[in-house]
Structure formats: structure tokens, C-alpha cells
Design brief:
It contains 38 helices and six strands. Among the domains are: 102 residues, Tetratricopeptide repeat domain (Serine Threonine Protein Phosphatase 5, Tetratricopeptide repeat, Alpha Horseshoe); 127 residues, no CATH class. Strands 2-1-3-4-5-6 form a six-stranded mixed beta sheet, covered by helices on one side. Helix 7 runs parallel beside helix 9 and helix 27 runs antiparallel to helix 28. By secondary structure, the protein is mainly alpha-helical. Bound molecules: zinc ion (2 copies). One zinc ion binds next to loops.
């Protein structure tokens, strides 16, 4: 751009040039020309300059416009609004509220209907609802209460905070409503996951003869993605055609349809729409498909689609990582996260929650701790309560219950939610800190937070792990009497477990008989487990038969029943159960254990020798067996139901996956380090007593997380007090 001095340039032609500037530098040159030609005494060119710089979208532009602004004696309301608008889109939205205050303070100009929507936008960006209420009062005070533009901004503002009641009130009291009012309100219901209210409003809109547009349907589809009735969902899709909106080339609408179907798990329907627009540019639609397949449990299909994508954004990565995490494929989730990091893609809050839950699933403490330090410790997501809940869950499940408690108690009281309490209580339960779990529950009551069904499952489970029979009974009673929550199968399961473990088998059995439902496998399983623990063969046999009747294809149940029989030396019966299992082609679930070492996860399978250090591990196992024997230890082989001789039984138990993992841990960990092992099944009696003794022999702390709870082995004892 060349603006040579001396050329006759008019005020208006300079402003036309200003419009077409492509860089800040060019705009500054125009400003120089305006000053050279003396136009800067006119308010019009100056206000255009200010607005160009303020809305440039960069920090430098905004700073420069602020300088120009501060040189004006009496900026008009148009210029004030421009500055407020500039700040409302910037990194410092608070500045727009500060400007508004000085506008009021000077008292020369009054705000107008354009001022308020920008201010509300700033409040939303600051996540502060309260100043928004004050802005609402000012709207009334300055007489813009009935302005449609302002009212729509208010509906949008309240919807943003999911205050649908307030939004609805503004909407209902409006004298005039346009398509934007309706769309904004339907969108608000979508955000708040209220599909019925959204549909009702849509009908009202049709009754008022307002023709829906693309945005109406995008909002409606988003609202209906939480419905799980395929018929209704398809009828809503059909509405688009009834309203004669052309879908074929409407990418926005198609993407919304796909997202709705995918979220409802209607993958065939989603696939049909997706097939008509499968272009690589449409990342959002691809991500919805990936997410839909993952949620529907078809993780491999999801991965195939994910791999076919040319471009991916954070939503696509997160969809795949959460998919793995929810499907229990935690290793794959961590691997994919690593891949994402290597491409320098920043995770968002949803990714962080998914990856923390994968760490929790695997017991990968080092990995989880790194995520905590890198993304949450520095306050990046630290204020988000969902993320904090996931962090606490991760530490608790990875065995660091102290860290979990520490973080829990540092959270300000007003931010604590029911699900945060639930995570903390179930963490304590898993570690066998029943008393603490009950205390945390009481704390929740004191805060007047209403416990939900999950809270009761967690707290009852905590009582059960610690033999707190009386506390448990009282809690169970209070469910219905105090909180009006009808006990469900899971709660009865906890109670049966609690009574059963404490040897009150008759009481447990009569509770089952008094239940308003037919007992499910979980309940019979709990009873059977208790019978095995206390050697109650008679009730045990009833429970076992019921269990096989309710769930005949679950290998673990056969194992449990045959173990009960084997424990009481009823070998013939045990063999029968075993045979029945074989005849049905059911495999005993494979036991595996994980141990995290140097940032890598080592997986061990029972009797498997494929680990690169298998030779050394075997030598270590031999040494362990020898030292155990010297200490007078006799292997407990009762759980081996194979018809094999004693010596062979001993070999079988000594190759259990957790023993392999422990051998590896003893070889590699420094003496002061706790050896942490994660096991998928319940730890067996033999490994349990061996681990107790080994913790004394090697003077090591060993921690095992099995399918039920944590065991902390130290100085020859276990934190579970042999009760699990
Ligand atoms: Zn074992
Ligand atoms: Zn234990």
C-alpha cells in the first residue's frame, strides 16, 4: 500500500482503505495518513480507527485502540461499545466490565441496547454468574428490558450457566419473540439435557407460526441426543423433511443428525447419513462416528474409522481415548495418549478425565502422577471439579490414598459435589478404611449434600470390608427412612456381603428371602463367597446352584463353587462342578497382574514364561519359595481343584501371576520403594499368606490391588486383617 504525501486523499477514501487493510502495520500507515491530513480532529475517522484496532483480534490491536480511546475527551457511546466489545472477546474480558463501570462513573453517556449483550458475554467468558445478575438489573434500570436483542442475549446468558429457569422466565415474559429467541432457548434446553422441554418449545414455535431454520434443528438434535427411544429420535429426524429444509448440501445439519444418532447408539442410522458425506474435511462428523462406535462398545470399528481420518482434532482424539478407557482397554488408551502428546496436541478436560480413569484402571501411578503434575497441578484444569474428582479417583485406585485424601481436604467446601464424595468414599472402602469412609459420609450429611445410590453402595461396601456391621445396618435403614432412596439390588448385595463376611450367614440368607426382587448373581456370589470363608457348605451349595442357574456362563462362579467344595475336601463334588464347566466350554478366567516399573507396565500371566527376564524371575521365585519354607511356611493348595498330586499343586500356586510380579518387583525395586501390584482376580489364600510372610522376610512393603480391594503387606501382616 502506498499513500504518498501530497496526493489528494479524502477522509472517506482513507476509510475505505482502512477497511481493506490486511495487517496491523497497514492499518497504522492509514492512521498516520489520517493524522497527516488532519482528519483526526473529526470524531468519525477516529471512531473507525478505534473500532478497526479493537476488533482486530490481537492483543496489540486492542492495546493500540485503548491508547487512542484514552486520548478522547468525550467518546460517544458507539466508541465505548466498541471498546467493551473488543475486551469481551479478548483474553481479558474483565476489562470490559471495568470500562463499563467508568462509563457509568463519568455519567456523560448512557449505555444502550448494544452495550449489554457484550457485557453478558464477558460474564459468561469469566464463568461468573453473579455480575450477570447485576447487569440484568441495569438492563431494567436503563429501560432496555423489552428490547428483543437484549432479551435474546439474556436467554443466551442464563442458558450458558444452565439456569434454564431464569432463561425460561425471560423467554416467557418477552412481548415479542423471534426465531433467535426460540433457537437460543432450545439450545439452552439442549445444554441442560432437557429434551422434553426442547420438543415442547419446538411445538410452541410452530404454533406461533415461526418457521424453524437449520439452527433450530441443530439445537433440537443436540437436545434429543440424550433420548434413548429410537422411534422418537427417528421421528425428530423426519421433522427436517416435513419443514422442507434441504438436507443434502447442509453439512451443519447432517453433522448434527449424525451426532444425535451416534450419541443414541443408533449406529446404522448414523452410518446411513455419514455415507452421504464421508469427506475428510468433516472432522466433526468423523469424531461423532468414532465416539458413537466407542460408546456402543465397538471399539475396533471406532479405531478403524479413527485411523482412516486424514485430519484429527482434539475431539477425535478424545473420542478414541475415552472409548478405550470405557471399554477397559486402558493400555491402548495410554498408548494413544502418548501418540497424541508426541504430535504436540494439547488435551482438553475430557481427555484428561479419560486418561486419568485409564491410569486408575491400570494402577499406573507414575503415569497418573505425571498427568496430574503437568496438566492439573499448574491450574490448567485445576479449577474443574470433574477433573479433580478424576484425580482423587486415580490416586485412590493407584494405592496413594493419602494423596487422594490430601487433595480432597484442600478443595473448598462450596465446590464439593456428591460425585466427589462418592469417589473419596469408594477409595477409602477399597483400602479398607471403613471408619474413615463412614466419617466422610457423615461430613457429607453435615454439609447437607444429599447422598445418592452410589454413595450408599460405596459406604456399605466400606462397612463390609471392615466388619462394621452395626454402622452398615443403620445406613441401610436410613436409605429409605431418611433419604427416600429405595434400596436396589446392589445395596442388598452389599448387605448380604456385610452380614456374610461377618459370619452372620443365616441373617444374610433371610435378608435375601425378604427381598422384593429375585436375587441376582451378585447377591448369590456374595453369599457363596461368605460361605467359602466360613466353611458353611450347606447354604453355600444352595447359593452355588442358584448362581449357576442365574448366570451359567460365568467361569468364575464355577471356580468359586468348586473351591468351596475343595476347601471342605469334597473332591468328588468339586470335580463334578469342574466337569460341568468344561462341558460348557467355559474357561477359567485367566489371572493376570501388572506392575509399573520405569514408566512401563509389565504384565504377568499365571504360569507364563514369556517375560524377557523370565529366567531371572524363575530363579527369584525359587529363592522366595526356599526362604518361605525355612520360615516354616506350608503352601495352601486347597484352591487348586485340579486332580493333581500335592507337589504339582504347589508348583501351580507358586506360578500365580501375582507371585511372578512380586519376584520381578523384589529384583528391580529399591528397598525403600513400595512394590505395587494390580491383579484382575481376587488374590488367593496361598498368595495372601505367602505375601504376608515375604513382606517380613525381605523387609519390604508390598501393595496388591485385587478385584475386591487393596492389601497393604508390611512386617508379616496385611491391612485387610485376613478379611477380604
Ligand atoms: Zn495365588
Ligand atoms: Zn490382605
Amino acid at each position: 500500500m502506498h499513500c504518498t504525501k501530497g496526493l489528494s486523499v479524502g477522509n472517506s477514501s482513507l476509510l475505505v482503505l482502512l477497511e481493506s487493510c490486511e495487517s496491523l502495520k497497514q492499518a497504522l500507515q492509514i492512521q498516520a495518513q489520517i493524522i497527516i491530513h488532519g482528519f483526526h480532529h473529526d470524531i468519525f475517522p477516529i471512531s473507525r480507527l478505534i473500532s478497526t484496532f479493537a476488533l482486530w483480534g490481537s492483543k496489540d490491536g486492542l492495546l493500540h485502540s485503548r491508547k487512542l480511546f484514552s486520548q478522547l475527551d468525550k467518546p460517544n457511546i458507539f466508541i465505548w461499545n466498541t471498546m467493551i466489545r473488543g475486551y469481551s472477546h479478548s483474553d481479558t474480558p474483565l476489562q470490559s466490565l471495568v470500562l463499563y463501570m467508568s462509563l457509568l462513573y463519568r455519567g456523560i453517556e448512557s449505555p444502550n441496547n448494544f452495550t449489554f449483550p457484550f457485557l453478558l458475554n464477558s460474564c459468561a467468558r469469566l464463568s461468573s454468574l453473579r455480575p450477570g445478575f447485576q447487569i440484568h438489573c441495569h438492563i431494567t434500570k436503563f429501560g432496555f428490558e423489552w428490547d428483543l436483542f437484549v432479551r435474546n442475549a439474556l436467554i443466551h446468558f442464563y442458558s450458558f450457566f444452565r439456569c434454564t429457569n431464569h432463561a425460561q422466565k425471560v423467554f416467557d415474559e418477552s412481548l415479542v419473540r423471534d426465531i433467535v429467541s426460540y433457537n437460543t432457548m432450545i439450545n439452552g434446553y439442549a445444554q441442560a439435557q432437557q429434551p422434553c422441554a426442547a420438543l415442547q418449545l419446538y411445538r410452541k414455535m410452530k404454533d406461533s407460526d415461526i418457521q424453524p431454520d437449520t439452527f433450530t434443528f441443530v439445537a433440537l438434535f443436540s437436545a434429543c441426543s440424550v433420548l434413548n427411544d429410537p422411534r422418537i429420535v427417528k421421528r425428530i429426524h423426519a421433522l427436517v423433511y416435513k419443514n422442507l429444509i434441504c438436507v443434502d448440501s447442509n453439512m451443519l445439519l447432517k453433522t448434527a443428525v449424525i451426532d444425535m444418532y451416534a450419541k443414541c447408539g443408533l449406529m446404522n442410522a448414523a452410518e446411513r447419513v455419514f455415507g452421504t458425506m464421508r469427506t475428510s474435511e468433516n472432522i466433526a462428523a468423523w469424531s461423532s462416528m468414532v465416539s458413537g462406535y466407542s460408546q456402543a462398545g465397538e471399539v475396533e470399528t471406532a479405531r478403524r474409522l479413527f485411523d482412516q481420518m486424514d485430519q484429527r482434532d482434539i475431539v477425535s482424539w478424545t473420542a478414541m481415548i475415552s472409548g478405550y478407557s470405557q471399554a477397559g482397554q486402558f493400555r491402548e488408551a495410554l498408548e494413544l495418549f502418548g501418540e497424541m502428546e508426541s504430535l504436540n496436541i494439547q488435551p482438553d478436560e475430557v481427555t484428561i478425565v479419560a486418561i486419568l480413569s485409564a491410569c486408575a484402571g491400570l494402577g499406573a501411578l507414575d503415569f497418573g502422577r505425571r498427568i496430574h503434575g503437568q496438566f492439573i497441578g499448574n491450574e490448567l484444569f485445576g479449577r474443574n471439579i470433574f477433573v479433580t474428582t478424576a484425580v482423587i479417583d486415580m490416586y485412590a485406585k493407584c494405592g496413594s490414598i493419602d494423596t487422594a485424601l490430601d487433595i480432597f481436604y484442600r478443595i473448598p467446601k462450596n465446590l464439593k459435589t456428591v460425585s466427589l464424595f462418592n469417589s473419596m468414599i469408594s477409595g477409602l472402602a477399597q483400602h479398607g478404611f471403613g471408619k474413615n469412609a463412614v466419617d466422610v459420609f457423615r461430613e457429607m450429611e453435615l454439609m447437607r449434600l444429599k447422598p445418592d445410590r452410589v454413595t450408599f453402595v460405596a459406604t456399605l461396601c466400606a462397612c463390609s470390608h471392615c466388619g462394621l456391621v452395626e454402622d452398615g445396618k443403620e445406613l441401610f435403614e436410613s436409605m429409605l427412612n431418611v433419604y427416600g432412596i429405595k434400596p436396589e439390588m446392589e445395596h442388598y448385595g452389599c448387605m448380604v456381603d456385610l452380614l456374610g463376611r461377618n459370619g452372620r450367614l443365616d441373617e444374610a440368607f433371610s435378608l435375601i428371602q425378604s427381598m422384593p426382587y429375585e436375587a441376582n448373581s451378585i447377591i448369590w456370589r456374595a453369599l457363596l463367597g461368605a460361605c467359602r470363608l466360613h466353611g458353611y457348605t450347606e447354604i453355600g451349595k444352595i447359593a452355588g446352584c442358584k448362581l449357576l442357574e442365574v448366570e451359567p456362563n460365568h467361569g468364575a462362579h464355577y471356580v468359586l463353587l468348586s473351591n468351596l467344595l475343595a476347601n471342605t475336601n469334597q473332591w468328588e463334588e468339586a470335580r463334578k462342578v469342574r466337569k460341568l464347566m468344561d462341558s460348557k466350554g467355559i474357561q477359567k478366567p485367566a489371572g493376570w497382574s501388572y506392575i509399573e516399573f520405569n514408566g512401563a507396565l509389565h504384565r504377568f500371566l499365571a504360569s507364563e514364561k514369556s517375560h524377557p527376564k523370565a529366567k531371572e524371575i524363575e530363579l527369584m521365585l525359587k529363592e522366595m519359595t526356599m526362604r518361605l519354607r525355612t520360615a516354616g511356611y506350608v503352601p495352601n493348595t486347597a484352591q487348586v481343584v485340579f486332580d493333581v498330586d500335592e507337589e504339582e499343586k504347589e508348583t501351580v500356586v507358586s506360578y500365580h501371576s501375582e507371585k511372578l510380579a512380586l519376584a520381578f518387583g523384589l529384583m528391580n525395586f529399591r528397598p525403600e520403594e513400595t512394590i505395587r501390584i494390580i491383579k484382575n482376580l481376587r488374590i488367593c489364600v496361598d498368595c495372601h499368606s505367602a505375601f504376608k510372610l515375604l513382606s517380613e522376610i525381605y523387609e519390604r512393603e508390598i501393595m496388591v490391588r485385587d478385584a475386591i480391594r487393596f492389601h497393604h503387606f508390611k512386617n508379616g501382616t496385611c491391612s485387610c486383617m485376613d478379611f477380604w
